[in-house]
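I am still getting used to backbone structure tokens and would like to learn alongside you. To get us started, please write out a protein record for me. Once you have written the record down, we can walk along the chain together.
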Amino acid sequence: MKLKNVLIVVKDIEKSKKFYHDLFGLETVLDNDGNMILTEGLVLQEEKIWKDFLGAGTIPQNNTSELYFEEPDIEAFVDRLERYYPSVQYVNRLMTHSWGQKVVRFYDPDGNLIEVGTPV
């Protein structure tokens, strides 16, 4: 068995596609009317489809999962984040853990938690 994708729920799929392209360079693999597969296995699904399927709403910023990315030049990444998305909501700005790894945590436009860290 193999994990193929991770799906996150978004309100505006085009806005989210731009966000993940601007910051992480993810490209569209498949656009299927409210479900969009991006490179690296990230799937965006419009909130309406999710709610119709589950019969339940979503809870943004629930902090029960996060998308984790690694970036060797994290200072350049933070500069890009602040340039493209100056109003991003941070959980923590760039910091260094006791073991030496630098990380930044923030929410995407829909409240999905993201961590970007230097390789360990």
